Automatic annotation (TrEMBL):
Domain L,D-TPase catalytic: 86-219
Entry keywords, A to Z: Cell shape, Cell wall biogenesis/degradation, Glycosyltransferase, Hydrolase, Peptidoglycan synthesis, Signal, Transferase
SUPFAM superfamilies listed in its UniProt record: L,D-transpeptidase catalytic domain-like
Naturally occurring in which organism (per UniProt): Methylobacterium oryzae
InterPro entries associated with the record: LD-transpeptidase (IPR050979), LD_TPept_cat_dom (IPR005490), Transpep_catalytic_dom (IPR038063)
Family statement: Belongs to the YkuD family.
Species lineage: Bacteria, Pseudomonadati, Pseudomonadota, Alphaproteobacteria, Hyphomicrobiales
Protein's UniProt name: L,D-TPase catalytic domain-containing protein
Highest taxon listed in the record's lineage: Bacteria
Pathway membership: Cell wall biogenesis; peptidoglycan biosynthesis
Length: 226
């Protein structure tokens, strides 16, 4: 069921506008997964949203996907790659993520990726999952910016969005995430500081499809191995 966005949208709009102001005065970015918000002021952000999807503890704002290039819209596609069903494959160059299915198809989603020099590639697994997750800076970020808040609660203004998949190698969190975003205009772009971002409605869909332990391949130049 799709509802209108009265209070939630007003709140989101105020948040986005305040972030534009912060960008103007050159406040340091809050998260390793957050983008440079330069493009936000180039568009009317209200035009991106068409309603909301009930969720807890916040409703998920729904994006007008007609504003996206068709190749970045969620869709089922044919798939003949070598990966086993249940594998997540992210193609950094194509700005697409696929979840391989058992019937020769895949669920395909558009993503935003890290700007030049920040895009990680490799093999990992989903070590844990989060719903409207809190954000915390890395040790390196704190050393560079001691005044950063040590945590930021989940919500519409959180750069991790509605869901997050935390990637691990072995038992080690590699600090690389697949997560939602409150900047839908960044899908298909190379703007973030490394993480893979999706529309909030898309990461919620993927979240429900994959368990902890899911294999994840992040490819660049057609390869996930060096």
């Amino acid at each position: 069921m799709i509802a209108t966005l009265p209070s939630a949208w007003s709140r989101l709009r105020r948040i986005v506008l305040s972030r534009i102001l912060l960008a103007v005065v050159a406040i340091a970015p809050l998260a390793a997964c957050q983008t440079r918000p330069v493009q936000v002021a180039q568009d009317d952000d209200s035009a991106w949203y068409i309603g909301s999807k009930p969720d807890k503890p916040f409703d998920i704002p729904l994006v007008d996907t007609q504003r996206l290039d068709p190749k970045y819209r969620r869709q089922q596609v044919s798939y003949n790659g070598p990966e086993q069903p249940g594998t997540i494959v992210v193609d950094i160059d194509k700005r697409q993520l696929v979840l391989v299915q058992a019937d020769g198809t895949a669920m395909q989603y558009g993503v935003g990726v890290g700007k030049a020099g920040f895009s990680w590639k490799g093999e990992a697994r989903v070590g844990r999952k989060g719903v409207w997750p809190d954000w915390s800076p890395t040790v390196t970020m704190v050393s560079l910016h001691p005044d950063l808040p040590r945590t930021r609660k989940g919500g519409l203004d959180n750069p991790l969005g509605a869901r997050a998949l935390y990637l691990y190698q072995g038992n080690r969190d590699i600090l690389f995430r697949i997560h939602g975003t409150n900047e839908p205009w960044s899908i298909g772009e190379q703007m973030s500081s490394g993480c893979v971002r999706m529309l909030n409605e898309d990461i919620a869909d993927l979240y429900d499809r994959v368990p902890v332990g899911t294999r994840v391949l992040i490819k660049r130049n057609g390869k996930y191995r060096t």
